[in-house]
Specification:
The structure is a homodimer. By secondary structure, chain A is α/β, with parallel strands linked by helices. In chain A, strands 7, 8, 9, 10, 11, 12, 13, 14, 15, 16, 17 and 18 form a 12-stranded mixed β-sheet that branches. In chain A, strands 3-2-1-4-5-6 form a 6-stranded parallel β-sheet. In chain A, helix 12 runs antiparallel to helix 13. The longest helix of chain A has 21 residues. The relative contact order of chain A is 0.13. At the A-B interface, helix 1, helix 5, strand 12 and helix 11 of A face helix 1, helix 5, strand 12 and helix 11 of B. Strand 12 of chain A pairs antiparallel with strand 12 of chain B.
Chain lengths: ~425, ~425
Amino acid sequence: MKQIKIGLIGFGTVGAGLVETVQKNGDLIAKRSGILPVISKIADLDIVSDRGVTVADGVLGTDAMALIDSPDVDVVVELVGGITAARQFVTTALKQGKPVVTANKALLATYGDELFALARKHQTEIYFEASVGGGIPCIKALREGLVGNRIKEIYGILNGTCNYILTTMETDNTGFEVVLKAAQEAGYAEANPSMDVDGLDTAHKAALLASLVYGKWFTAADVDVQGIREVTLNDICYADSLGYRIKLLAAIKDIDGYIQLSVCPSLIPESSLLGHVNGVYNAVRVAGDVVGTTLYYGRGAGREATSSAVVADVVDIGLNLLGNCSNRLPAFPVFEEYKGLIASDEVVSRYYLRLQVADQPGTLAIISGILGKYQISIASVTQKEDQQLSVPIMILTHKAKVSAMRQAIEEISREKSIHAAPVVFRIEDLA
Amino acid sequence: MKQIKIGLIGFGTVGAGLVETVQKNGDLIAKRSGILPVISKIADLDIVSDRGVTVADGVLGTDAMALIDSPDVDVVVELVGGITAARQFVTTALKQGKPVVTANKALLATYGDELFALARKHQTEIYFEASVGGGIPCIKALREGLVGNRIKEIYGILNGTCNYILTTMETDNTGFEVVLKAAQEAGYAEANPSMDVDGLDTAHKAALLASLVYGKWFTAADVDVQGIREVTLNDICYADSLGYRIKLLAAIKDIDGYIQLSVCPSLIPESSLLGHVNGVYNAVRVAGDVVGTTLYYGRGAGREATSSAVVADVVDIGLNLLGNCSNRLPAFPVFEEYKGLIASDEVVSRYYLRLQVADQPGTLAIISGILGKYQISIASVTQKEDQQLSVPIMILTHKAKVSAMRQAIEEISREKSIHAAPVVFRIEDLA
């Protein structure tokens, strides 16, 4: 049995959760794995607040750099969040050959290339299970469990806040703004919710998953992103009436060797497993050429779920230290198993289109004429009866290129009978 | 980059699938992991049949013992099935210090204790991802991804044949016998389907999962087993009308430190994720004290799914060989993290009860009287209208001990107005 001494940088909610988990289940972990994780040092600017956990004297301090230097730290766990300081801490640790565990998807999606190169150079490692899917061991599944598969596609519900908002809009029959406000008050959404609801957090995670699978470090800039602010209760109800749920869906697809990376509100069949992933839960659906379709589900964020993933990473590193086999599993091997990214305009999809139009003869004919001009064929259309002068029209299309849909939307928007900017989501007919 | 030379014993459907996977994706696996798996030797009694894959001259032979001895074999993959010969092959390999990969749940559930002791003694290892959940990396999730969790409960749909039969009964509105026959003709069920439909295969897998989680080697004899032969189309339709699906469910629960191990037809909510696991797919739902509820889904058997899991195990072993860290992760550490098994009579559950009764006044009063005598309270009851003298009554109960239900059933069965042996399934109100 070997102690692995953790140096924890960042004593916030998740940091305190890690301390609690190690204290509660450390002995069991040691019995199972031979590795006893111990919280050796903690660094945080705030050494006063009560986190609901007790640590021994001398463990908590403010100096993260001294923590990294300490001979009493075998592995550095970075839980500060943000990019600038985190990058400095991780870089310093790696340069000293100290392995790092991080839950920081923004850091990895932005500087992963640089950090993994540094880890390789100094023969140490970065583990990052908690960065995607919270407590779900989906990074491990992709890197190890499915190592024998060429990955054909990944669909992910990767942001708990968005999924909570969309689910609650449906269950409580309430609009986006009201649910967002309630979520903020309940602590499910940040005061500034942009990272979540505008899709960037999901894009970071999608970039990470794509990188692992296709062997090139993608960043969020490679991902076509649309957030959930435009999703209305009407959209959700209409989708429901057609057997669909609306989810903020990350899609990573290998289409004849070219990679599609996108994050957008998507209609998925109510009968699918992903369609039943509700509330703050996340899921990753991975299709491999050998294994077929697999799916991984669990809590996508939060103190406990994140701790579970971080502890697993610490044990993995501990086993490597114990067995003198650091870098046993290449953290991020570059192999570029793809021909190129598909430009966002070239992506082919089915679409859900919502228009607010004048309730007057000929409007639908104009819209369908423009769609037809761009070779977009209509699968179904519903015009809601209303007492207003302005009525919503919902259209589901067959497959078409994004470029065609963008051009059609631009032309439709110029029509006088269109009263608001058209809204476009995607449809993914996954099983 | 290191070649790992596979000695494959058993060139049947799955064996040929492994050869195909290694040939197709070997280079990609090498790029990702640094391990190039190579089929070095194959042993099978039949060296004539066409398996649809080509192997080099000198690879295929009949002598499994010579294969194990060969210096050209780094890892022995046992895919013969059955217990006797497989045990001999695995034992011989381990005694030579050669690591073993197996998909053989019956072997492990029966002789796991002995085989893991042998692996420890000879400082080598056994990997067995394919033994539960086919291609789903659920063993890895339990051993590694959730290592920081005390596991509170596991529910599993672990037998593809049973799940295919139950799903098809519902979708095709057809009885058990007809669906079983069609499944046999389509190759989804064995000529002798007993291992599957009588629940023993699921019990083997449940014993394996429980062993990993609670640190004692359980066998199928420790599992309370009921198969699916008694499930009728009527049961499925009635359950459906109440919002339930019927699944052959493995339940592994830690109840105040005591362990419940059971496999039986169970009504689970139609709204749950497990309720949407259909056809030959499997799923394992694991609740940990830190991570909360997680779920792992995929194909539970078959040539490709099994190959995917076997290749992942081979790569894990290859990484250990490359890093000189065999036994990096203890294959099966004994830690007995539980107080004892709950005797099957002491298990507490809700029940679904189907009776065939005389259509005469007072019958329901007699039944509810007997249930009441054993403190079993009724949650709902339906008596179907029928033109027959004999009508079905379906009862859902609240929680009660198995012993109470058994006594009540025995007493009910003695009543003249009861026309057939009562049928009892369980209800699991999982989310």
